[in-house]
């Protein structure tokens, strides 16, 4: 089965610091997503990315968040100035075509102190 | 906003008993997907339902999509300890370019051996 990989697996940061979460997508998968899951809660959509631009974003995805695919391969999520409430598991997901199976990465657990 | 309600939140069953989780949306879904998340793991795609009234089976798992495409269920027959985890439904809503998956809160299944 195709695999999405994410780095780092864990990240601890101080409030106000910037973090960059990285995702290596499945080749030939054209749609990219970031989700977050606060401990014990549901998976929440953050942003979708297609054709090198954001196609949709949720209300959670405010000006502190940004995504890019700088080298045409890795897909990154940047949080500019982290807040305590940003502590969560962040999942990257890939999809080959619209509304098909989404393959989730193992996640990055972010802890903001 | 669009929401997918899922019940129950928790379910404890004896091994061998059946288990059902239900999802409901206030508005029509384009399609619905089901995911399983093991403790400490990431969501893993189980199945996608697209057609009104569709029923799909995977061994002991039976998935249904309602006639109005507003509700869905997952039924597990004769649960095993390997079924432990949280089961999420996630829906796509109709609308051009809408690739945002909206997740239910999940049903956490515990199986008592």
Tally of contiguous helical segments of chain B: 0
CATH architecture group name of chain B: Sandwich
Quote the average pLDDT of chain B: 93
For the largest beta-sheet of chain B, the strand count, sense and barrel status come to: 6 strands, mixed
Tally of extended strands of chain A? 11
Count up the domains of chain A. Answer: 1
List keywords for this structure.
heterodimer; A: 113 residues; mainly beta; Immunoglobulin-like; 11 strands; B: 113 residues; six-stranded mixed beta sheet; five-stranded antiparallel beta sheet
Compose a concise summary of this entry.
The complex is a heterodimer of chains A (113) and B (113). Chain A is 0% helix and 51% strand. Chain A is an all-beta fold and 113 residues long.
Describe this entry's structure for a reader.
- The complex is a heterodimer of chains A (113) and B (113).
- By secondary structure, chain A is mostly beta strands.
- Chain A has a single domain, classed as Immunoglobulins (Immunoglobulin-like, Sandwich).
- Helix content of chain A is 0%, strand content 51%.
- Chain A is built from no helices and eleven strands.
- Chain A has strands at 5-7, 10-13, 19-24, 31-37, 43-50, 53-57, 65-68, 75-79, 88-95, 102-104, 108-112.
- In chain A, the strands form two sheets. In chain A, strands 2, 4, 5, 6, 9, 10 and 11 form a seven-stranded mixed β-sheet that branches. Chain A has a four-stranded antiparallel β-sheet with strand order 1-3-8-7, with no helix packed on it.
- In chain A, a hairpin with a 2-residue loop joins β5 (43-50) and β6.
- Chain A is globular, with a radius of gyration of 13 Å.
- Chain B is an all-beta fold.
- Chain B has one domain: Immunoglobulins (Immunoglobulin-like, Sandwich).
- Chain B is 0% helix and 56% strand.
- Chain B has strands at 4-7, 10-14, 19-25, 29-37, 44-49, 55-58, 61-65, 71-76, 85-93, 102-103, 107-112.
- In chain B, strands 2, 4, 5, 9, 10 and 11 form a six-stranded mixed β-sheet that branches. Chain B has a five-stranded antiparallel β-sheet with strand order 1-3-8-7-6, with no helix packed on it.
- In chain B, 36% of the residues are buried.
- Chain A binds chain B through residues 31, 33, 35, 41-45, 48, 50, 55-56, 58, 91, 95, 98-107, and chain B through 30-31, 33, 35, 41-45, 48, 88, 90, 92, 97-106.
